[in-house]
Structures are given as structure tokens and as C-alpha cells.
Design a protein that fits this description.
single chain, 230 residues, six-stranded mixed β-sheet, four-stranded antiparallel β-sheet, 10 strands
Length: 230
């Protein structure tokens, strides 16, 4: 079996789940997987995403990304590994003092050795795929809410990530964005990567045709696997 993209082993986090929650014994995300997580609590979903990305250390257990235990990585190595993770945040954290283009490129300007022209070209392709009329420029605050969502997708997929973590990306409002997201996730799979899609929307969770390889429910007692309907 290939090495998991993400592995949580015997993890406990009272900050996320409370003192009496059971440990997450084994949560494995293998290459080619799309894990759909029913996560109604946005704060809990963001904390779980932080845990997966090595930003919130567990009190017990181990979180590994591409075989690397987050807790044992020097800061520089951890930053480099996070450069292989694309994340769509529920609260995107756009920087108001930077223009839209720089906001989108900023994570890759930090993590990649690609020339800026190459990044701009790739970002323009992604912008077109996600329905933007070109790569956004000008003040980030002037973008419409829907275009900010699309810009977040461009930012997440720009670095050709090995793992994509999406926090309720369509928010029950932008169903037309699901097909291009799934196409891009398929490309992540082709590179040996995986995706975790956290949703608080019935739009995705109740869609039995959604191509999830695992369905999991996230709550304050931890993670619970959900059996597919027959």
C-alpha cells in the first residue's frame, strides 16, 4: 500500500473535542482519496483543519503528513511541507493592504521557486476554470463575495498541492462551483495526492453521487465513520 497522505494515530485534543472525547485511533487519507466530512460547527472544522496541517499540536498521538510527524519537524521543514497543502479557509484571511493578485499569489511566493510570470500564468488558468473574468486585480475589498470564494480556490490549487483541505467551500450557495472543484481534485489525485472536503451544507452531504471515498462526521466527540447508504 502507498504511504498515506495524512495519518492521525491515537490523537487526543481536549481543546477541539473536550476532555472526555474518545481518541481518534486511526484516520488515514490515502493517495487518490476524497474524504467528505460532515462538519456543522465551523470553529471545530477550522480547528480540525489546523490539526491536519500541523498548526494545532495534539496533546497525545501523532499527525503525519507524507510520512512526516508534524511535531518533530523543524520550523523551516514544517513550513516547506505546508507549502504542499492547498487550503480553502472558511474565513479566507485576505490581507486588505495587498491587492487581489498579491493576496492570491502570496503563499506560493513564499513556498515556490517558480518565477512570478509562471505563477501568474498558472493563476490565470485557474481563474478561468473557476469562472473569474481573468485574474483579479485591484483592492481585494472591491471583489464581490462570490468572486472572493472563487479567488480562494485559485489560491488553494495554485501550488499543485499534494493535499487539499476545503472548509465548506461552496457554503450551500455556490453549487455551480462543485464540478470545477472536483476536476481540480482529480488532478491532485493524479499527482498522488488527496483531498478533505469539510461541509456544513446539505447541498454536498446529501448528494449520494458525490465521489467521496470516505464519509466521516466531525463533532465534539471526535470523528465517526458514516457507512454509505445501500
Amino acid at each position: 500500500m502507498n504511504e498515506p497522505v495524512l495519518a492521525l494515530s491515537d490523537v487526543a485534543s481536549s481543546e477541539l473535542f473536550g476532555r472526555f472525547a474518545p481518541r481518534i485511533a486511526e484516520f488515514l487519507v490515502q493517495p487518490g482519496e476524497l474524504v467528505l466530512v460532515d462538519a456543522r460547527d465551523a470553529t471545530l472544522a477550522a480547528g480540525f483543519a489546523d490539526l491536519c496541517c500541523g498548526l494545532q499540536p495534539p496533546e497525545q498521538g501523532m499527525v503525519q503528513f507524507l510520512g512526516h510527524d508534524w511535531s518533530s519537524q523543524p520550523a523551516e521543514m514544517a513550513d516547506a511541507l505546508r507549502g504542499l497543502i492547498g487550503r480553502v479557509l472558511a474565513d479566507p484571511g485576505w490581507l486588505p493592504f495587498l491587492d487581489a493578485t498579491t493576496n492570491i499569489l502570496l503563499p506560493q511566493l513564499h513556498h515556490t521557486r517558480l518565477a512570478t510570470d509562471e505563477l501568474l500564468a498558472r493563476a490565470a488558468v485557474l481563474a478561468d476554470e473557476f469562472g473569474l473574468p481573468g485574474l483579479p486585480g485591484g483592492p481585494i475589498a472591491r471583489l464581490a463575495p462570490e468572486d472572493l470564494v472563487r479567488a480562494g480556490f485559485v489560491r488553494a490549487f495554485l501550488g499543485r498541492p499534494r493535499l487539499v483541505v476545503l472548509e465548506s467551500p461552496v457554503q450551500g450557495l455556490f453549487g455551480d462551483m462543485v464540478p470545477p472543484l472536483l476536476r481540480r481534485i482529480s488532478e491532485v489525485h493524479d499527482r498522488g495526492g488527496a483531498a478533505i472536503w469539510l461541509t456544513r451544507s446539505r447541498l454536498v452531504w446529501d448528494d449520494r453521487t458525490f465521489p467521496a471515498t470516505q464519509r466521516v462526521r466531525l463533532g465534539h466527540l471526535g470523528l465517526t465513520a458514516v457507512e454509505p447508504r445501500r
